[in-house]
Amino acid sequence: MNNAFEIQNLCKSFKDFSLNNISFSLPMGYIMGFVGRNGAGKTTTIRLILNMINRDSGEIKIFGLDNVQDEQKIKQDIAVVFDDIYFVDSWKVREVETALKGFYSNWSSKLFNQYINSFHLPMGKKVKELSRGMKMKLMLAVAMSHEAKLLIFDEPTSGLDPVARDELLGILSKYIADGQKSILFSTHITSDLEKIADYITLIDYGNIFYSGTKDDLLESFCIVRGGPHDLTDELKKNIIGLTTNIAGFAGLLPTSEMKHLAPEIVTETPSIDEILISISKGEGNHE
Amino acid sequence: MSNILKSIKLDHHIMKSRYPMFAIAYILGIVLAVLSKTPIYGALVVMIIAAPLTGQYFSIYEKNNLEKLYGVLPLKKFEVVIGRYLFALCIIVINGMIAAILAYIISFLTNKGMSSLEYLSYLSGGFFYVCLMLAVIFPLYFKFPFSKVYVFSNLPFYLVFIITFSLTRKTNVLKQTGPTAQYLASHLIIIAAIGLGLGLILLALSCLLSCALLEGNREVSLPAEKPEKRLFFVDNLRTWMVTLVVLQHLAELNNTLYLFMMLNSAYFMGLLFLLAGYFTPGSFERKGPGTFLKDRLLRLGVPTLIYAFILSPITRISTHGQQALAGNITASLFALGPMWFVVMLLVFDLGYLAWRMAIKNKPERPAAENRRRLTFLTVALFMLVLAAASYLLRFVIPYGMSILGFPSLDYSAQYLSFFLIGMLAFRRDWLRSIPGSLGQLGFVLAVLATVLLFPVALIGAGSPWIGHGSWQSAIFALWDSIFAVGMSLALVTFFRRFLDGGKKFGRFLSQHSFTVYLIHAPIIVFLMLALRGLQTQPQLKFGLEAIVGLPLCFGIAWLIRKIPYAKKIL
Question: Which domain holds residue A250?
Answer without folding.
Answer: 218-281
